[in-house]
Design brief:
Trigger factor, domain 2; Chitinase A, domain 3; alpha+beta; Alpha-Beta Plaits; 3 domains; 436 residues
Length: 436
């Protein structure tokens, strides 16, 4: 008789699985005999120990494994016959009531994947971002490259302003006591780069070498050091040098510094434009893809398996710990990172992943080999030896799979854009690049 699959709540299901003790013991005895042929037992030649001794030493472990195998096979058959797709691992609990003699019974509780209906794509409202790259944008980028290569020259009597490198001594006190990390000598930083807290930079602005100032500074509540977070310190600073940044000319030497071997300024400017336009294209695609994915996930509200959400959240916690370790944070493995902090985003990711998978299958949007190669060739243009990069990606299965995933997402985005209500949105260059 086919076991009855009981529907609990949402996607949760339960089914009873029964195995025959006779079948279990038959398999246990067969495995014991196989073990006995080669078992080394003290006082006996190899393979000559009585089966009763092998039973005492190996029986419990073998019996445990056999029961698990039998239950697993029985459960797999039930799920296959019922055409259920299980999400996560079933939870097994032994049953004692109503169990027939000569059998073992277990109750298996699990979640199933939801039935997913792709929303009507023609009702989705999508924003497609656009951006024009102007000559002024190119010039601003060149200016940034110049500032990154500035040479700083000390100026006597110069008052510190944005872009100047200031060298100073400072000491901070909270309630009259110095604190760890609150003191330094001959400390240099460039005003306007955001390396110091805004209140600190404001206090330094306008000071000249030889001047001293005392001022209060309140640390943000989320400051990296818990010792001072949210507290107000009194800082005393003494400026020892103000150096003006002298920008390099846009000439042959500057072009060579940026990798233009011939020192050709026109070629440098053309390369900068090409790189900027490539970056702009990638960011525009990312914004448009975000709009598509937001619209898709907002158009559906099916249940998602809690097990998949938990797995995703646990993965994000592990990634967060690894990131903390890379940043040198002590005790990153033991810091309390609540799973609940990631659950909402993990639920969204799982729901979107299930929906996109259904859309890919229903609309035949799988990545085609020619699309993958074209994307690899496009990506390879970022390197000096594009042909080598193409060969590497085509020969490495994992790297190729990464590109296939990108192409698949592109196919989904293009498909949705072809069906949905699309509004063009012009985005400023500085906003797009995050420089405003």
């Amino acid at each position: 008789m086919q076991p009855v699959v009981e529907k609990l709540s949402g996607l949760e299901r339960r089914v009873d699985v029964v195995v025959s003790l006779a079948d279990v013991e038959k398999e246990v005895q067969a495995q014991l005999k196989r073990v006995a042929r080669t078992a080394k037992v003290q006082g006996f030649r190899p393979g000559k120990a009585p089966l009763s001794i092998i039973e005492r030493s190996h029986g419990p472990g073998i019996r445990y494994d056999v029961i698990n195998d039998e239950v697993g096979r029985s459960l797999d058959k039930v799920l296959s016959d019922s055409q259920l797709r299980v999400a996560g691992s079933p939870q097994l609990e032994p049953k004692t009531e109503g169990v027939e003699d000569g059998t073992l019974a277990f109750s298996a509780t699990f979640e199933v994947y939801p039935e997913i209906e792709v929303p009507d794509l023609s009702t989705l409202q999508i924003t497609r971002s656009t951006c024009e790259v102007s000559d002024a944008d190119i010039q601003r980028t060149i200016d940034i490259l110049r500032r990154q290569r500035a040479v700083y020259e000390a100026r006597e009597g110069r008052k510190a302003g944005e872009g100047d490198r200031v060298t100073l001594d400072f000491v901070g006190r909270i309630d009259g006591e110095e604190f760890e990390g609150g003191k330094a000598e001959a400390f240099p930083f460039v005003l306007g780069q955001g390396r110091m807290l805004p209140e600190f930079e404001t206090a330094v602005t306008g000071m000249a070498a030889g001047e001293t100032k005392t001022f209060p500074l309140t640390f943000p509540e989320d400051y990296g050091s818990q010792q001072v977070a949210g507290k107000t310190a009194e800082f005393t600073i003494t400026v020892t040098e103000v150096a003006e940044g002298v920008l390099p000319e846009v000439d042959s030497e500057f072009a060579k510094q940026l990798g233009q071997a011939e020192g050709d300024v026109e070629k440098l400017l053309a390369d900068v434009r090409t790189n900027i336009e490539r970056e702009v294209k990638a960011r525009l695609q990312a914004r448009t893809k975000g709009s598509v994915m937001d619209a898709l996930v907002g158009a559906c509200n099916f249940d998602v398996p809690k097990a998949l959400v938990k797995n995703d959240a646990e993965g994000r916690v592990a990634a967060a710990r690894e990131d903390l370790k890379q940043r040198g944070v002590p005790n990153a493995d033991s810091l309390p990172i609540p799973l609940e902090a990631f659950e909402a985003e993990s639920e969204r990711r799982v729901r979107l992943g299930l929906l996109v998978s259904e859309l890919v299958n229903s609309a035949d949007l799988q990545a085609k080999p020619e699309q993958v190669r074209a994307r690899i060739e496009e990506f390879a243009q970022n390197y000096e030896e594009p042909a080598q990069v193409v060969a590497y990606y085509l020969s490495d299965r994992q790297r190729r799979a990464e590109i296939e995933a990108i192409v698949l997402e592109d196919n989904v985005v293009d498909h949705v854009l072809s069906k949905a209500q699309v509004t063009e949105e012009s985005v400023g260059f500085e906003e797009l690049m995050g420089t405003n």
